[in-house]
Amino acid sequence: MNKEFMSGNHSFGEAAIRAGCKHYFGYPITPQNELGEYMSEHLPKAGGVFLQSESETAAINMVEGASAVGARVMTSSSSPGISLKQEGISYLAGLELPAVIVNVMRGGPGLGDISAAQGDYFQATRGGGHGDYRTPVYAPASVQEIADLTYKAFDTADKYRTPVMVLSDGLIGQMKEPVVFPKKIEKLPEKEWALRGMGSGPSRLMASFHIDPAVIERHNWKLFRKYQEIEKNETMYETYMTDDADIIAIAYGCTARIAKGAIKRVRKDGIKAGLIRPITLWPFPSQIIKDTASKIKKYIVFEMSTGQMLDDVLLAVEGRIKVQFHGRPGGAIPTPAEFARIIYREYQLESKS
Amino acid sequence: MSKTKNKVVIRTEYCKGCGLCAAVCKKGVLQTSENLNKQGYYYMEPAEGAECTGCMSCTLVCPDLAIEVYSE
Amino acid sequence: MKLKNPWPIYFKKDVETHYCPGCGHGIVHRLISEAVEELDVGKRTICVNPAGCAVIAYNYLNVDCIESAHGRGTAVATGLKRARPDLFVISYQGDGDLAAIGTAETIHSANRGECFTAVLINNAVYGMTGGQMAPTTLLSQKTTTTPTGRTSGNDGYPLHITDVVATFKGVAYAERVAVNGPAAVQRAKKALKNAFQAQIDGLGYSIIEVLSPCPVNWKMSPIEAWKWIDDVLSKEFPLGVLADRRPKAV
After folding, report:
1. Which domains does chain C have, with CATH numbers?
2. Residues whose CB falls within 8 Å of the CB of residue C29, separated by 6 or more in sequence, listed in order
3. Does residue A151 share a domain with residue A31?
């Protein structure tokens, strides 16, 4: 087990190569350029293909082609570029094609800025493109998790034949940390469903278009049942100091790390605070939030947005306890001290009431 | 020199009656039927008494693969 | 008696196409199926189907098919071919698909010399959506979105996309053909086979533009549509080989 010191963006690439990803199509955009650069150097050495596309739109459609013939394939971008990919992600969902899409989020809307942000939660978890579909979304909070979850994302994509997103941000993407990579996969099982020319069998088709609405309705229900399976099997979260907590923060990605720092501080003053960190944003870990709600006084949702995951928390809590929100949108990065102040304040308000 | 016998058969259900086959036939072998097919088109049919030379022009331009040409 | 034109094996049996009477799509589908059979690549062919009238070409072509988003056919084809260079890949697209919404994908896949064949059906209108202006619509041609005729002032000029990509070094073969008569159809098939052979030989990108009749949206009879291709459309888009970078036989 070799420990390496690597940036988040490079780790996406290395983890993908180790997961057997042979094809990368992408277009440069800050703050994720190091990922494409890493792939351009290392993917050909691993017997794969790196191609810098003419646009994010082209890249995601190249992904469709490579995925259709059974390859493990990845694309990456940052917020504005991910918007361009949404059409293609919808087609991947409709065609039931596996692929891994990395979003290293930056500030928005519009061109925004190149700082870390979490404004793409709705886009990532609500499908993003047109039509009735979901995208599994992993939210790493460290470089190590970038490696582990990217590796896992390829398995999830193949297992359920679905596009999977790894939703990170400019902070973790640019940050260097020690990381241990999973073992390199040398040989992947053949994909029965992949196109390879009809050969000696009947011709095959990959299409999401059918003129008969009954066919498309059946297809949508089939996808729905698949999403139910994913919700049942793939939900991931971490709890931190929640056992005796009176007040629990809910945060994902780098915001969760900042919240953890804040919790460590307030714990020193005897404030019983904890953290629930969703690792999958869809499927959202609603059950743990429901279960914990009866044992505590208040949730505080921290996000680097004006409140997007907040909706999922409110849906899970169903009005049983108070939910406080604190957010910093547009690329502003909060500090543990700032979050600690919020926890102190909410704790005092609860004590008074 | 014995004359080769040819025969045109229209797959009537596939024919949309566009008439392009009749337009390219130099021998007037094809004509529009007075009957409709299932698709609702007046399909093409071989004209009585006309002599098909087997030139295949009609099959080249038929957009619907609706023409079969047989020869002896 | 013997059947002189047996059913092409790469055309599905017993299906009635949904195309309008006199439409060129059926002819081009048949030519593609004959060409892949004659060049013995049908079993390893993947055809990318576009958005447009040919969206369900997969119901007719008896080869593996994949759907593409509107305009993205050549990007999908790039992905297919990069992942499986041993496959034979065709991107079948209309003029709006290839030369308007998909211009960037067309230009860049051609410029990279991606080794597949694009088949461009140029009928100077958006057929499936009901006859709106296409990038290839002629000046003064009336469509449902140019009710008084296309004007250069408002809409610019007919786009010669095949002439544009023909200038790229990555393009092995480019030809413009028509399917408005027996001789034209035979020339079109020869052009398709030249383009396909260029792909088989690994020479790079190839494109065949087909001037194809759309009698319904042109508001003409099928015969008038053929004549209009000869008299008008091919005057703006002259037929012929636009690029041939295949090595010359010695």
Report:
1. 25-244 (3.40.50.970)
2. C11, C17, C54, C57, C60, C61
3. yes
